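Students often ask why we bother encoding 3D structure as a string. The short answer is that it lets us treat folding as translation between two languages. Here is a chain of 133 residues written in the first language.
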Amino acid sequence: MDSCSAGPSPGIIKPICILDDDSSVLSSLQQLLDSDGFEAWTFDSPDRFLAYAQEHSVKLAILDVWMPETNGIEVQERLHELSPDTQVIVITGREESTIRAAALAGGAFAFLVKPFEDEAFLALVRGALGEAA
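And here it is in the second language, the structure alphabet:
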């Protein structure tokens, strides 16, 4: 499920990219962001997401921690090498203090444990994008 394969049309605001191996999470976050006026692109593969990020400007990435191919902290590190200005929100289904610490030390704007409140998530997205909450 890679709804970002073609990339955004020229002149469109830089999209928010969501990386998660769970299609239901991708769908619900995309719908939530779209309903709040954001353009959201989804990726279920770290490699496809990083290939996209290498070729396109990404303002904000929402990264799941636990995925079969790699983990979100490794993706965050690789993304930072490709695009140091990209903001990152890390999401996970299980709280682990070492993972939280690694994400935040790696420059993540926020770290959220699923499930989370829609409004709290949107407030973090706005903050990461430098918009008033």
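Translate back mentally: Residues 4-12 have pLDDT under 50 and may be disordered. Keep this in mind for the problem set.
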